């Protein structure tokens, strides 16, 4: 059975790895902080914690977190992005796979935190979003955190209109047994206001 193409693959044809990496390299060279997502996650738990970077792309977030002392695994469907990640950090675990079928990758449950940055949720294959959230929740330890960042309007997405609303996302999280703990407007933890164009959400799995 063939896997449905995600919105990211439809946009890029699965050949975006080098260009994506070059974009962030230019941002770093111009003085921009490109590690906001990693810093946000690092503020939530201590080094040595297990982190899954879901939709890791070129590995920017996972590599930075590994530098800070976390044990990181990255998963992505885009082989061109994974090729960059493996070249930059060959010692880390990089897995090629569908987030809707994480259980097929043999990942051991018990991650302290799963991060899905970079509009991972809006760029999933249409109709798979609920299954992906279920799979991400399933690999968390009791009390573990799901951290997501997602655009909610065209200005914050590489799409003409948002395919996912916060209401839908929160519903999928509730179905997966997760509870919303915090929501922000940026990775710098600016307060979120209803109707904002971007949301960083922290959901938690129950401790029992």
UniProtKB/TrEMBL annotation:
Cleaved signal peptide residues: none
Gene Ontology BP, a term: methylation
The Methyltransferase domain, residue ranges: 51-144
Domain of life: Bacteria
EC number: 2.1.1.222, 2.1.1.64
Top enzyme class: transferase
Example of a GO MF term: 2-polyprenyl-6-hydroxyphenol methylase activity
Keywords: Methyltransferase, S-adenosyl-L-methionine, Transferase
PANTHER family with a match to the protein in the record: METHYLTRANSFERASE (PTHR43464), UBIQUINONE BIOSYNTHESIS O-METHYLTRANSFERASE, MITOCHONDRIAL (PTHR43464:SF19)
Protein name (record): Class I SAM-dependent methyltransferase
